[in-house]
Structures are given as structure tokens and as C-alpha cells.
UniProtKB/TrEMBL annotation:
Catalytic activity: GTP + H2O = GDP + phosphate + H(+)
Stretches assigned to the SRP54-type proteins GTP-binding domain: 336-349
Main location (coarse class): membrane
The protein's name: Signal recognition particle receptor FtsY
Amino acid sequence: MFNRFKERLKGFKEAVSSKIQEKGEAQAEKAEAKAQAEERRAPPKREEVAVEDRVDDGPAPENNAAKPKWSFASRAKSLIFEQEVVLDEKDLKDPLWELEMALLESDVALPVAETIVASVKGELVGKKKKIRADTGEIVEEALRSALLQVLSENRFDVDEFIAKAEKPVKIVFVGVNGTGKTTSIAKVARYLKDRGYSIVLAAGDTFRAGAVEQIEVHANKLEVKLVKHRDGKDPAAVIFDAVEYAKAHHRDIVLADTAGRLHTNVNLMDQMKKIVRVVDPDLLIFVDEAIAGNDAVERARLFNEAVPIDGTILTKTDADAKGGAAISISSITGKPVLFLGIGQDYPDLVKFEPEWLLERLLGS
Ligand SMILES: Nc1nc2c(ncn2[C@@H]2O[C@H](COP(=O)(O)OP(=O)(O)O)[C@@H](O)[C@H]2O)c(=O)[nH]1
Ligand SMILES: [Mg+2]
């Protein structure tokens, strides 16, 4: 997961480390030159001559058996690594450019990349660092806090929302074809069933041949009710009926499938608006795949403009090397990510938690 992202971030981390090293060495050289100049001015007494300066010609005389003292020069040398380096804006210019490129190449949306870079910069400028200490640590910490900030925007607890909402809770899933809507509905059905809720599925994809059969297979496997129309072509009517069924039978949650559609298809976008008008969903969830990167984020933005959406599910995160969509989608839409799909089976769904994602983005 996110292998390319991690790979690309390495360049930035190395750039900061070598800057600290470089600056530290320059500082140390100066200190050493100064110490040597002082030593020339006032040479140390006989017993203060450093070990390395003595010629080893046989056993040391009795009076030298005690620990020899270091010369000024070598003492300065040993202090190099204890010296603190302070990073300023100029030092960070190149590394931060490297970071911005890494983020953009990982499909992080431009405004989000800029926010992250600014926040990392704020964390690092003026930071003191001992050059011998692990330089990777401060960089890691700065990245962690910048990403966490972005991922924590629009926080939303879907469990709490569903627990408190009036029943039946109506949840409609929309998005383009093949991104994992139907699979996600089945996963969410399983997730909610495991938490004690009763579920009704609505076969609202009346457009694609085989779509009703596909969701029917899931309904049977999960042992939940499916509402479908034999020959109906109106998804709004199917979903409306599913809601009526849930009300009549005191079911907790309706999960409605819909046909895949592109935001450019005016008829299908109008159909989606009609569904929203007729059904008035409690949650309109946009589903897209993490591997689509920038495209997924752009589609989310356009769907949100058209309807608007309440949140997203990002699927196929398990197959995503870049991470950009997962980092950007909430920030760009202003809507929370509710779940991440991490595989093809029912349990391969995780409730979105910034910390969980952060571990996978930065962890090994
Ligand atoms: N690896 C992986 N595959 C997924 C995930 N979610 C869905 N898929 C696969 O994506 C394909 C399309 O899924 P489907 O639910 O039919 O998409 P829909 O057209 O949006 O309803 C199927 O082969 C799913 O198994 C996921 O989180 N990870
Ligand atoms: Mg489908």
C-alpha cells in the first residue's frame, strides 16, 4: 500500500538530512579553525598534549600514566556532533521543492500539497537539531503532523450518525462505473449487520445488464432483503419502494445501489438528481477508486457540485501505490471520507480514521 508515495518521500527526507549535515560540518570546520588558531597563540602545557599527538616510542613514562587531556583542536572535533544546527528558510527551499514534487507526483491535489508543504515548513524552520542525532526524526514528525491535519478535516463518525438518525436511515451510493459501488454496498451491509442493524438493499442500478443479479447474489449471501423491480427502469421508484418496505417492516437501514454515471452524462446526472428529490437520502455517498488518483478527486468535486454529496468511500486502496486521492478527496470536497475499501471481500472495509491511514502512508 502506498509504496510509491513512501519512495518519493525518501528524497525529501534525504534532502533535509544532507542539509543539516552540510550546515553542521561547515559550522564545525569554523569552530575547529578557531580552536587551532587559539592553540597556536597559547600552546598547551606538556601534560595537556593529546594522545594522538604523542609519538609512541615504548611504554609511557610513569608520570603520564594518568588519563591524558585532549588538545583544544581535538576537543572541538569531538564537539562537532554535539553541535546544534538551526534550519532557516533558505536551507529548506530545495528540500521543500522536492517535497512538493513528491506530493504532486503522488496525485495529491495542488492546494492540498501546498497546505502540506507550508505546514512542514512551519514545523522545520527554526528547529534546532544535533547533527549526530537521527535527522530523519524531525522530518518524519513534521510530515506526520502536516498530513494528520489534512486528514482530520471534516471528521465524521458514521456509526454515531446512524445510531442517532431516525430509522429507516436512507443511504444512496453513486459514482462512475466499475469503481466498486455494489461491492461497497455489500461490505457496508455486512458492517452494519454485524453491529445489529437490519438491512434492506435496493437494486437501483436499472441501467446495466446483470446489475440486479449481481446485488441479488450479495443479498442472498448476506441474508438481507433485496427490493427490485422486474422490468422497471426507474431507479427512484425502486429505491422509494425499498424505503416503504423498510418502514412497513421496521428495518433500520436502506442501502441503495445506482447505475454508474459520468458527470458529463446529462441524462444520467438528471436521473441522479431525481433519485435525490424522490428519496431524500440521509447520506448520499460518492464511491470512487483510490487508484484513479486525481481523476477520483476531480469526479468527487463535480458530483458534489451537482447534488451535493455527504461523504465518500474510497475503494481499492489496497491496490493504490500513490495515496494522493485518499489524502486529498476530503479536503477538496469539504466532505468526510466514511470508509476505505481494502480488498474484494466483505471484511475488506475500514471505517476512515486519519491515524489508520497515516500509519499506512508513513509506516514501513
Ligand atoms: N482490490 C479491490 N477491489 C475492489 C474493491 N472494491 C471493489 N473492488 C472490485 O472492483 C470491481 C468493480 O466492483 P463493482 O462493485 O462491481 O463496481 P460498480 O460498477 O461501481 O458497482 C470488482 O471486481 C470488485 O471486486 C477494493 O476495495 N479493493
Ligand atoms: Mg454496480
